[in-house]
Amino acid sequence: MTSVEIEEIIIAELKGNYKLSNVYGLNLNKCLITPLKQTYLSSVDENCSFELWTVLEETEDGQGYKITYDEDDSAFGLGMMSKENELIDIGTYGSFIDALKGM
After folding, report:
1. Of the N and C termini of the chain, which has fewer Cβ atoms inside 10 Å?
2. pLDDT in tens, 8-27
3. Do residues 33 and 72 lie in contact, with contact meaning Cβ atoms separated by under 8 Å?
């Protein structure tokens, strides 16, 4: 899977409605990023890691929530940066909109 294919999934789901936001007033135009494949650690087993695509960064400094895409499950989820600067997978939600609402 490529970053372009993942962007197409997000665009199709949003159907051009970039005014959607979470309860914090997230601006999708600023927070959506070119999908980047990264290694996330499991939140329940630090010895387990996953390759997930980061598709959204809540904050520019990378300390906020992240929306991820798991190409094996075809599902979006949430991630965050740990105090040790490691990416942590904190759950799968299904659709991009579901993950956005989960923030």
Report:
1. N
2. 999 998 886 666 666 567 88
3. no
What type of residue is 10? I
Contact 66, 52 (CB under 8 A): no
CA distance 69 to 52: 6
Domain boundaries, the chain: 3-102
**Contact call for residues 77 and 91 (beta carbons, < 8 A):** yes
Sequence-separated (6 or more) residues with CB below 8 Å from residue 15: none
Report pLDDT digits (tens) over 58-85. Answer: 988 878 899 999 999 999 999 999 989 9
C-alpha span between 47 and 20 (Å, rounded): 36
Residue 8: phi, psi to the nearest 5? Answer: -65, -40
